[in-house]
């Protein structure tokens, strides 16, 4: 017998029919002798509807009240799923985050889970009950309702699996696993049987939005065996997210191509090349809570250099405003910037042992006449910034160049 935590996303519980379908799947696992804890999201579209509703009343909704309201979406689905199970003769009980006591900090709309009291859940499981827990929500020390950030039900699932030392945390969604890249861009994209945590973190942060990134970090930290799979298919093993490289069945050098169109690029030209200059430019950006992704500084010549970096598009105008006075102050020549860029990355732990990945990447882009504006690398990824209009082409040719459409050996 094993203890399984299953999380179902919004589309998986998007209608009464879908909820009954989930109930049948849960019942099947229980019949096979497993203890099952189910975490559900709000019905698809519901959280967006609530967000819009709040904004009609208050343009910047009060964070505490916002969370009181946002948490209602999941409260509806837990009860409906419990009813569906009961109707099938399966005994089930639902709990809100506060009832379990998923204790979080008090950072409304992006709270972090600090502790989970799992006694009540264990007692129910021992009585052969299916336990259903509302995703995305918790409660702070003072009893205020909190939410965990959009997509936060994934994190609830993983955190419960960690607290209960579950054998596996299964994340059911509307895709059947993690792909080598977005199949909407590359129809030949292939489902990966497994991917390591490190790779998944890179893929998630680079824009492949299968799992909330925080949930992957959590799973890595607490050694939770995590699997992504589809609730729309009866069979299928999905993608297992593994800890160890050697657990990986596929030994390709590259596991996937990730991309992201959310960034903007800012370059300060003709910056006096002297100690402290990077800090003078980027310090105030950091102080304004703007995350900087890539940073490139040229080799100086004639006492001058250029500094480029990228920020999220949402922070682009704010960053420019901060930089204008700085440019004058440090007597840099000018600022050039643009948000028509995209970042494309090749990701793979196999890179550590395979030489030549970078040259294959750069040659492939060159052959298509795609200019690389910036490059950054880590141990397991190489990212380039290119003109946004070449994004799809770049992803397609790289996917092919690294043989990702071939079934894994
Ligand atoms: N319902 C929340 C959202 O839409 C949480 C989740 O689905 O994970 O973001
Ligand atoms: Mg989700």
Keywords:
single chain; 409 residues; alpha/beta; eight-stranded mixed β-sheet; 20 strands; binds aspartic acid; binds magnesium ion
Bound molecules: aspartic acid, magnesium ion
How would you describe the shape? globular
- Helical fraction equals 25-40%
Q: Give the rounded overall mean pLDDT.
A: 92
Contiguous uncertain segments of 5+ residues: none
Extended strand count = 20
Structural class from helices and strands? alpha/beta
Biggest sheet strand line-up: 3-6-2-1-9-11-12-10
Alpha carbon gyration radius: 24 Å
Largest sheet: 8 strands, mixed
> What is the assembly state of the chains in this entry?
single chain
Fraction of residues in β-strands: 25-35%
Task: Characterize the structure shown.
By secondary structure, the chain is an alpha/beta fold. It is 35% helix and 26% strand. The chain is built from 13 helices and 20 strands. The chain has helices spanning 16-31, 46-57, 63-70, 72-87, 97-100, 119-126, 153-164, 197-205, 213-221, 277-287, 316-330, 357-367, 391-401, and strands spanning 3-8, 35-40, 92-95, 102-104, 113-116, 130-134, 137-139, 145-147, 168-173, 194-196, 226-230, 239-242, 256-260, 263-272, 292-297, 304-312, 334-338, 341-347, 374-378, 381-387. The strands form 5 sheets. An 8-stranded mixed β-sheet has the order 3-6-2-1-9-11-12-10, with helices on both faces. Strands 13-18-20-19 form a 4-stranded antiparallel β-sheet, with helices on both faces. A hairpin with a 5-residue loop joins strand 7 and strand 8. The two termini are 32 Å apart. The mean pLDDT is 92. Magnesium ion binds next to loops. Residues 9-10, 41-42, 47, 73, 135-136, 150-154 line the site of aspartic acid.
